[in-house]
Amino acid sequence: MKYVLVTGGVVSGLGKGVTASSIGLLLQACGLRVTSIKIDPYLNTDAGTMSPFEHGEVFVLDDGGEVDLDLGNYERFLDSTLTRDNNLTTGKIYQSVIDKERKGDYLGRTVQVVPHITDAIQEWIERIANVPVDGKDGPPDVCVIELGGTIGDIESMPFIEALGQFSYKVGPGNFCLVHVSLVPVLSVVGEQKTKPTQHSVRGLRSLGLIPNILACRSTKALEENVKTKLSQFCHVPEENIVTLYDVPNIWHVPLLLRDQKVHEAILKELNLLSKAGEADLTEWTARTRIYDTLLDPVKIAMVGKYTGLTDSYLSVLKALLHASVACHKKLVIEWVAASDLEEITAQESPDVHKDAWDLLKGADGILVPGGFGDRGVQGKILATKYARENQVPFLGICLGMQLAVVEFARSILGFDDANSTEFEPETSSPCVIFMPEGSTTHMGGTMRLGSRRTYFQVPDCKSAKLYGNAKFVDERHRHRYEVNPDMIAEIESAGLSFVGKDETGRRMEIVELPTHPYFVGAQFHPEFKSRPGKPSALFLGLIAAASGCLESVLQTSGKVNKVSTNGVANGSPTGKIYQNGNVYSNGNGFHH
Fold first, then answer.
1. Residue 320's CB: how many other CB atoms inside 10 A?
2. Is position 216 annotated as part of the catalytic site?
3. Choice among 398, 431, 461, 549 that is catalytic
4. Using an 8 Å Cβ cutoff, are 83 and 130 in contact?
5. 75 assigned to active site
6. What class of enzyme is it (predicted)?
7. Closest CA to 536 of 399, 360, 395
8. Domain annotation for the chain: domains and CATH numbers
9. Which of 75, 475, 509, 527 is catalytic?
10. One of 252, 263, 479, 525 is an active-site residue; which one?
């Protein structure tokens, strides 16, 4: 087994996750089998109980693992299926060691950070690195490990020590360290400054880790004299110093690394040059070229409560992007804070209220994503009502689907107090209820999580067609509440159709309004399984409906042809090629 460790220095948010994902993709393009591990030094067991404002979205895996959003990047770039154990946290390590101590596994010895915690970290890495994530038998060839945080953080010290021991244990030729650092350009002098990286590498070396490759984030390519200086002071060969300069979108990052022959440097360090082939990124390059040349916009209003931090909806944004590229449309996100649509905002801040409604009404499609808590719920209901009454393409995810049912019960059935018991426990019309198997005392890991099967009840519904006329589909879930099965008959008799249910037939999974151009709600989170070359079916439906080409997509059973090698999509739903294009940034200098 070969290991590539990606660390970060100077500041957080440099794009270590994107860099690690891109390195994995490059090695995969060379014909190697790749897996990934993300190390998060926080004490939480997992990301499940963290606020999106604190750490971005919680990414959900097939096995129900609630993990760091970087694992979403790994899955999207490598088209792999990871497990909860691919996300290693301080909480998990300490918990496993304390459990062993309580069972008496340490035979009365004093349990310490070194060697017990550091040994547990190494054992975890070795065990998980050998688990295949690509659906094939046998262990992968390379494991890409990303160490979260910044070199020098107190909380990551046990991991640094463990990885230093680990690099010595596996030996030369089996371990390659890529250090991502910052080379800022001071506006006063306009010069690329190397001192922050020098200090970062010095700190890394003092902790027992020697970088093989330096990946320097900067606004532009490193000048040759800067590379020479870095090589001299950091003891890294010039050919192993690469620039990760700002690019239009993150799909360019693997191409940027390939053009600077990063894969060759890694393969050389790992003695894999004879086993690996040439890096074939033909299809990736073509898709990136399409993305760069899109001009015709499709506006999607994102009505949520965490709109102040776009990483809160990272997978949703990616799924929208994958679908818009497939439809040859330039994605434009209109961020609408749900609470701004509410009447109380109209009274307190009339201008904010008007601007929010103007954005909503100017959109080609409306998306109401998942969320927790009652803030902004009424605004989401108002947005859903607007979409239903004005024939605007609509997709509701998780809470968004539940609120679509609540809005329908209020407006069409006349149940004025219809609500979810999450927000109004004593409502006389509980459209959404707490699931019987849920825990009312513990928050972490107690939701209905992971991949679950949905069976289509109506074969010719839009959702089934988008999924290729499938009889069932497996998607990932994360919820505590569900549509009340005792109210289904009454709701369906009024015109709302529950076209997808679980294996028992009592848990509602997909809802559609047959008389609407595209009004779909899903209890699951389809965004988690969307890939650049394989957009999520329901997101593809939303973008296609918003672009006016839903019928042509439905006629092909939701299939989108592969891009050709010249960067033109074969059989584009719009039948046009657009030029020039654009982007939204994720705040770390790389763009989405």
1. 29
2. no
3. 398
4. no
5. no
6. ligase
7. 395
8. 2-287 (3.40.50.300), 294-558 (3.40.50.880)
9. 527
10. 525
